[in-house]
Amino acid sequence: MDEFIAALDEKDLKEGSMKKVSVEGIPVLFIKQFGQIFAIDNRCPHMGCGFSGGTLDGAGIICPCHDWRFNLRTGEFEDDPTIKLVKFEYKIESGKIYLKLPDDK
After folding, report:
1. Is residue 56 part of a domain?
2. The sheet that has 89-93: what strands, in order across it?
3. According to the model, what pLDDT value does residue 55 have?
4. Radius of gyration of the chain from Cα atoms?
5. Which among 8, 42, 57, 103 is placed 20 to 30 Å from 19, CA to CA?
6. pLDDT band at 1 (very low <50, low <70, confident <90, very high)
7. Whole-model pTM?
8. Which residue range forms the structural domain that includes residue 49?
């Protein structure tokens, strides 16, 4: 998939918040933290638990199921950097956030 898909209005994502949306059937969690936007798969790579029920902790997100903490900038699990959450590429145009899904989704 080489195209970007409209996901949500930028104004709907407030600082320090998370917003779950479905893009082409994929659960995506948008996060705005420190003025930066992160777009991640809402499913934890550990057991598929939804990150949207978790908490933000500085530059990290903590999964609600087993308290695994992932760095939003690198995507790495803090206790084992080989385990990473799925991050999506996005762009902002005319106040809308567009998401690019990987080819394997």
Report:
1. yes
2. 4-9, 96-100, 89-93
3. 96
4. 13
5. 103
6. very low
7. 0.92
8. 4-100
If you write DSSP's letter for every residue of 2-68 in order, what string do you get?
A: -SEEEEEEGGGS-TTEEEEEEETTEEEEEEEETTEEEEEESB-TTT--BGGGSEEETTEEE-TTT--
Do residues 30 and 18 make contact, with C-beta atoms less than 8 angstroms apart? yes
pLDDT at 105 over 60: no
The CATH code of the domain that includes 18 is 2.102.10.10
User: Which residues are paired to 43 by β-bridges?
Assistant: 50
Whether residue 105 is contained in a domain is answered as no
Residue 58: strand pairing partners: none
For the chain, the residue count is 105
Which pair of tokens denotes residue 31? 């996060």
Q: Give me the sign of the Cα torsion angle 75, 77, 82, 84.
A: negative
**CB-neighbour burial class of residue 45 (10 A; exposed 0-12, middle 13-18, buried 19+):** middle
> pLDDT per residue over 92-102, tens digit each?
999 999 999 87
- 101 three-state secondary structure: coil
Confidence check: pLDDT of 15 > 50: yes
